[in-house]
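Note to self: user wants both folds in one dump. Writing first protein now.
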Amino acid sequence: MDSFRRLTDLPIEYCGDVRGALDGADFAVVQTSWQEIRDVSAGDFRKYLKSPIVFDGRRTYDPEVMISGGVRYYGVGWKNEV
């Protein structure tokens, strides 16, 4: 985070962990498959997000697991329903 802070003056709120970043957010955009991101469950998305909506640009999650877990899931290469 410190390196990125030095590179930009954008008004960004930095968080120490992924659940802190999700807390109160409108939705999540996932662009990495790091283990700490893969460890976030559908229940976590339901608990922390205002609306459990996930845009998964890396197919980090199993779409069926997310959907059956109550998350509106939109993923690259997945038959997203409108």
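First done. Writing the second protein, which came from a different request thread.
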Amino acid sequence: MSDWLPWLLFVLILGTFLAIDLFFVQRREGPLSIRAAAGWVAVWVSLGIGFGAFVLWSRGGEAAAAYLTGYLIEYSLSADNVFVFAMLFAYFGVPAEHQRRLLFWGVLGAIFFRAVFILGGILLIHVFEPAIFIFGAILIVTGIRMARAADEGMDPEGNAIIRLARRWLPMSNRYHGRAFITRQDGRWLATPMLAALVAIELSDIVFALDSVPAILAITTDPFIVLTSNGFAILGLRSLYFLLAGMLGRFVYLRYGLAAILILAGAKMLASPWYEFPTVLSLVIIALILAGSIVASLIATRRQPLAEATPPDPRQMREELDSD
């Protein structure tokens, strides 16, 4: 098979579904119901796994295992994005009818920044091999910090992303429909909509710094890394609407994600002396993720399930402001 054909297939799938999202799904206002979000999550996961089958057919079992491991790592870390997105939407009081639009542009930003960091990371490793030790240390430190953050919870006022957005964006005090900027008293001001978008894109950069070294701990094949990340990120928006109303139930998920990052970091640090089997990495990561989810659901089994839509961010903003 020609080397460019797998790339062409990936670009065609990516472009087709982004176009469907932009020109058809975007026309519907309001948040997705849990049922609709679950349907879209199933579509994205099916696409991701289906492409993994194509990798198996075209490149063999080792490449397919690396693809699925990278896909699972990125998809599991996307759950942490959901926590941050919910916090940002609450803090900026993003109306429910505008959340889809912001998440669409957030997904595009995530794809762009992942591609930049992935290509840069691969180049750095090939040019400066000791970079693997830097990446491994970053993953372990990030994992430890994530585990500690799971105990401390999230503080919007203490979040660096929010502080940066508020400092550099002169903002109006209310939304102006779907507009990102507005003219008020003779000067142009950002609306809270633009501030929320900037905060989301900055969070994409922060998450790229975490997730890219994690996948590079598995493989440095650009095709495997980019495609596994791309398909995982595509389902991020639907994942938000599926999980946003149930975040309180995943009390142990961040511990699982922290363990995955620490494992990836340890694997990268040990790589010059020991090559950890990719299939074994896939199995361990899947067990950690499944175990943290099951433990969370058991621990919160008496907590009622979320309603069909995520919580009203304006009400959440009022609660934050009253603290």
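Dump finished. Worth passing along: The chain has one domain: 4-322.
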